[in-house]
Amino acid sequence: MVGGAAWELVGVGAVIPLLAAVVDPERLIRAAAFTPLRDLLTPENVLWIACLSVFGLFVLKNAYLALLTLAKSRFVARAKVALETQLFQGYLHAPYEFHLARNSAQSISNIQHVTGAVYHVLLPMLVFASELLVFAGISCLLLWVQPFATIAAFAACGIVSFVLMRTLKGRVSALGENQVRLNRALLQSKQQALHGIKDVKVLARQAHFLDGFHRFAIELARTGAQLQVLNQVPRIVLEIAVVGGIMLVVVIVTSTARDTTSALTSIALLATAALRLMPSLNRMLASAISIRAYAPAVRLVHEDLMQTAGYAPRLDAALAPSKTPALSGLNHSIELEDVCFAYAGARDRPALRNVTLAISKGTSAAFVGQSGAGKTTLVDLLLGLLRPTSGRVLADGIAVGDLGEGWLRTIGYVPQTVYLADDTLARNVAFGLPDALIDRARIQAALEMAHLSDLVATLPQGIDASIGEHGGRLSGGQRQRIGIARALYHDPEVIILDEATAALDSETEHQISEAVRSLIGRKTVIIIAHRLSTIRHCDAIYFLDDGTLAGSGTFDELYRSSADFRRLCEFAMLKLPGDP
Question: What is the pTM of this model?
């Protein structure tokens, strides 16, 4: 940037010898700087030499400025990629509770704000700095040539600029805040409508979502238009101020100059400088307005970067395949020791209270209870996604939170709602793996265990067929079974099914239950279930009630000992043999 400012200064300063060559070539030849060339210079050729020299200087200047612009653009582009990647990496490595506490639209919106932060704040900062150097350099030249006129003109322009920024800054800041709010609201409106498109159509709510989207879009457009207008105001006002300043300078110079030649040279230099300084001043003020307008977006990005900075590993480590070895296997048991957990914002209402239990290797365990009893929270604790508020969750005596990815790679997890990408069946089963690492034989085996062989046979491209966004081309039961196949693909030591058969028909549910039962003894199976028929043969059943462990034992033992569990069984029309 300093080099660019120097070239701009040379470009403006070149006007002096050029005008001298036009007005008084003899005087230019007599100048001390041209003493070695005096025998070669004549009044006839000095003008040609001056013109060619100035032309050459401007070619070199603009070539340098083009390279400087290229370097600046590359720097800004790299900064954008680095910031986006760092923020996205922070979100991916942030604790699960971080994501539970916020809307996904907020995180997506903040990643999008990086573009605004870079191109409307970082780039304007670079522009402001470079133009400030140009402004300072040319100002020094003008002060050397015409100090009094320069000070008078700069004082007038400075007062105008100061008043202008004081007038605009409050309005610009308010519009910037509004722009951030509207961008997030617009994104959330789109997400809600398109993610729930089936419900939107069935309930005929198109008008509601369209109305909300339209209102946000109109308000955002108005905000953007106002910012554009405010961005142009400095140019309009300063142009008037600069023209007035030039007129003032002309009056001062003509009244104080010693001769006509000096007056013309000074006026030409000042006019040339003004033509270059006016764009610089405009760019500086426009940059200042842009920085202020997008400061709220930068603040949001900065807050999340700081909040997630401690979670993310170095980028090269994050992009490399994980070298954390998986556990050799569960050797003894999974234990919960006096576990309590409360979500942020609800510390006075714990989701789990004083839960103590043990699940031995190779056994099957089920957790049952009414909605809100704490079953899903308990699963998240077992997965290590949440850490207990007090107490410990242990695998072979080691806290699962300390085992990190090593523990997660020993688990096959099937959630209540399976996420399916708009990709092939194979890539959804081997979710998140690059093609080079996908084992197609293991995919086929996992699909067969999940009773999806018939589905594969009907697909023209087999496991390479696309299943649509969120598995939109599949039935609910097929989507759930793909989740089961995904869990089985890695041949996990522990399998956790979080109401995984809830969306299946009775026959398929029976088939999946039989497949899961066949794993007992070889795998440790943990089931969260509403359908009590699916957990009747589990080795142990834990009955949760309002966040506490209200009872445990085999199905028969719990049926006899717990009136609340017995009531659940009666609702499901399940009874012990011999009961009336």
Answer: 0.72
